[in-house]
Each structure stands twice: as C-alpha cells, then as structure tokens.
Amino acid sequence: MVVFAGQGDPRRSMSLLWRSAEAGSRPGPKPGLSVDAIVDAAIAVADEQGMSALSMRAVGERLGRTAMALYTYVPNKAELLDLMYDKVLGQLPTEYPSDQGWRAALTAWVGDVRAFYLWHPWVLQVSQARPVLGPNEFTMLETLLRILRQTGLERSVLRGVVGVVTQFVRGAAEVIADARRAARETGVSDEEWWYARSPLVEEFSAPFERQFPLVAWLGELDPPAADDDCTPYLERHAEWNFTVGLEVLLDGIEAAVARSVG
Amino acid sequence: MVVFAGQGDPRRSMSLLWRSAEAGSRPGPKPGLSVDAIVDAAIAVADEQGMSALSMRAVGERLGRTAMALYTYVPNKAELLDLMYDKVLGQLPTEYPSDQGWRAALTAWVGDVRAFYLWHPWVLQVSQARPVLGPNEFTMLETLLRILRQTGLERSVLRGVVGVVTQFVRGAAEVIADARRAARETGVSDEEWWYARSPLVEEFSAPFERQFPLVAWLGELDPPAADDDCTPYLERHAEWNFTVGLEVLLDGIEAAVARSVG
DNA sequence: TTGCATCTCCTTACGCCATAAACTAACCTG
DNA sequence: CAGGTTAGTTTATGGCGTAAGGAGATGCAA
C-alpha cells in the first residue's frame, strides 16, 4: 500500500502543499470541489476505514463525485497522500513548557505524538522515504528541536538524537496500530488469535523450552493474565515496552549530555 | 501492501511453518512443485524486484506455472508472506561471543540485523502486527536474549529493552530501505530529488529561517557535501544517525543495568 | 450576440491484482 | 479397469489507479 509521490512536477507538489492558490476568474464551470475538501474527505475515509479502504473511488464517492473528478485537483493518489499527511500533522501540539527541563518536555512530546499516531494510524503507513516538505512536517520537527535544544547537545549529535527519538515513537505506535488493524481486518481478537496458536507452537516445536529456553523464560508464551483491565493482550505488553523503552532512551540522551559537558 | 495472515486454519499455518510434511503415497498426479520451491521463488522475486512486484502471477511464472497453481500448496498470499519471512530469517547469525560483554555483542547483533534487513528490504514490509510464530522467528529472539541475558536485568525490564532494541534496528534499516526503494521505483535519485525541491521550499515558505529557525540551524536543508564518497545523501545521514542512536541506546541500557545493580 | 478556448466532470477502457469455480488430465488403490 | 483424489489449467468476478476522450458549463473577445 506504500506509494511514492514526487514523480510529478515538483513545483506543482510544493504549491499544493503550501496552498499557494492563484484562482482568479477563469473560464469554464465553477469548481464544485477544492483541494481542501478532497484532502479532508480522504482523511475521513482513512480515519474511519483505514488506509486499505482509501481509494480514489471511495474519496470521490464521499464527495458525491466519481474517482476521476479528483484528478482535476490532485495529480495522483501519492500526492493526495502527501497532502493528507501534512494536513493532519497540523493537529499536533506545538508548545511545551521549557521550565521543567527537556526530560519532562520530551516525555510529553513523545506521549502526544504516540497518541496522535494512534488516533490516525494510517499516518504510519505513509512512506518516510523522502520528507514531504510540507509546512506541518517542518513545524513538527521545529517543535521537537525546541525541546531538544535545551540539552545543549552539538548539532551533529542532535541530528542522531532526533533520529532515534522519532523512530522510537513511530515504532512504539506501530506495534499497537498494527495489532488493532490486524484485529479489525481479520475479525479475530488478539486473545482468540493467541489461544488458537499457543498450544500449536508447543505441539509442533517438540520440546519448546529445550529449543528456546530464554524465549520460554521471557514468558512471551504465557497466556495473558486475565485482569479486570480489558486492554488487549498485545497492547498491554506494548504499553509496558513503551514505558521502559522511553526511560532507556532518556537515560541514553542524558548520558550523551553528560559526556558533552564533561 | 501489508496483508494479514492467520485468517485461515491455524493448524494448517503452523504445520506449514514448521514443515510437518506427511506426504506418503497418494493418488493423483505427482506434485511438480513444493512449498519450499514456492517460498524460494517468492523470496527471489522479492529480493530482485521488491515487494511491490511480488504477485502470485510473478511467483508462478518464475516456476513455469500459473498463479493458481500455487494455491494447491499455499492457502493464500498472506500465508506465503509469513513463510517467506520465517524462512529468510534463517539466514541470520545465531552465535555471538560472550567474552567481551553484552555491549560488544549487542552492537554486532544490531549491525548484522540491520545488514540483513538491507539485504532483504521486503522483510521490513511484512506486518509485525502478530508474530509469525515460526521456528526462525523464535531463534532470532533467542539469539538476542542470549546476548541481553548478560545484562542481568530482570525479566520485565528485559522485555522492554528487547522492544526498544528491535524497534531501533527496524527503524534504522527502514529509513535506508525506503530511500532506496523510492529511488528505484521513481527513477529519481535522492540528489536529483533534493536539488529539485530545496529551492522551492525557500520560495514557498517565505522566510524559511524565520519560520523554522531551528530546522534551518540543524541544516536539514543543507545541500549534501560533495564528498569523494558516493553514498547517497540520505544514506549518509542515516549512517550517522544509526551510530549516534545506537550509542544513546546502549548508554540507556547501561543506565538501567546500573540502576538494577545499585 | 456569437464563437471559442478553457475548465469540470463523466463514461469508458486498460492492465494490473487476489482468488473463487469449474474443468481436464494424471495417478493410486480397490 | 473403475472411481476417487489430486495438480494444474482456464475462466470469471470484483477490486484497484488512471489514461483517453467527450459533454456541458462558463468567461471573454470579436
């Protein structure tokens, strides 16, 4: 489902992303649609039915048009994806308190971004191969940098840190988003799925504890504890991994800061 | 392009993954193919032409058959993907020296896994939503755990660490793999792509340095230094991010170890 | 006012994709 | 040799993105 934009006219892409509308009075029928309306409709489809349901036909239908009508406003599906991506990024918060240190602010940012990804899981499926170069993508990076600047790390190290942090949030959100998507698209919950397979692993792998002692010890094969908590199995794991992982990451950054000062 | 397996018979999936062949003499024509032959052909197609070229038709053609012939051996494309995934994971090394500490071993493991992902980039496109539960997936985890056991971290923390580390390698490889895929599928190199867009960003965003001072400072907009080095622009950045990120991660784990000891 | 260029939006069509259904032909067992 | 089972084919269905061409609306110049 991953598609690449940017094979078209770069100037056209950019002017769409930054919405430099010229308009003026022109011949021909008045446009019944607009880029914004199309992008909004596309976002709505993706939010409601997931990326796999996002087709030109579906977007057109939501606007009471055919698929082909969209091509008057948007060069192709890949560009539409880029527009959706940048527009929805605009929902991210941009202000974080700077008086409690970078650690608190970064924790808040990571939490917000992860929540955002889980709110619009399809965003995770937009290729990160090449930056979209839209205004909101830059804004997101600027926000992160305002927080990380407080570490006082030098530029080249900061670049690396930006990389790990963004990768971490994406990864943390992806685990959950993928699990939810799987549950929705297959109609099988994590629990059902697991209970159907867990005994089979034991059966086919002969003595599992002998073949994979450490995996067995880690308890990935344990059935989910039947808590009052109704959060799905995999998500409970993911939640914990997120907490631990974030701490590891923050400690690592702190170490880098300590090294750069000392 | 992400597809989910596991909507079929779990027992069938498992017996395919663990290759519990019954065979015996049966009526009907001799099978001209085998699950292994199909999986190998599919891996070859994915390696050579990428995941987007992996269709049942393509695999069948490579074996001199039609697409439909494969369905005798494999229930559907999603299951085939799982089989490809687990089989190719078998190429990963499993032994790492334990006499130089976990840090050295983990560094080597992360490097190997990243190299592996870049060798078979399509692996990154197999959904991680639910574990495949094949033998080689367990082996990979077991290998990582043999290394991480040396940290002496308690089980629950270790689970978190496993999560961050695997997410980190995936992320680090994805950046590069996506970039290469984009270059291949669009026929536009990173450099060409960048030179076409860089000036346009300045043009459309009015005073870029005023709007995004920190982004400008970070120099993401700098044109790539024209080194003797012929590694593409984005990959050079990625390489650096990988090094810095890994160090941050290792330091973070070390902090966790120190905390658990003290 | 007319004619035309231009624009929106539609219909149609092409070539992909996964896979369901029905068929042919090979083969083992009774 | 008959019957049932299996491997592999052909054909068809309903999806996808989007190229091509046409119909009707609109603003402007003559």
From TrEMBL, chains A, B:
Molecular functions (GO terms): DNA-binding transcription factor activity; transcription cis-regulatory region binding
Residue stretches making up the HTH tetR-type domain: 32-92
Start-end of DNA-binding region: 55-74
Swiss-Prot/TrEMBL keywords: DNA-binding, Transcription, Transcription regulation
Residue stretches in coiled coil: none
Superkingdom: Bacteria
InterPro entries: Homeodomain-like_sf, HTH-type_TetR-like_transc_reg, HTH_TetR, Repressor_TetR_C, Tet_transcr_reg_TetR-rel_C_sf
One biological process term in Gene Ontology: negative regulation of DNA-templated transcription
Listed Pfam families: TetR_C_1, TetR_N
Protein name: AcrR family transcriptional regulator
UniProt organism field: Saccharothrix tamanrassetensis
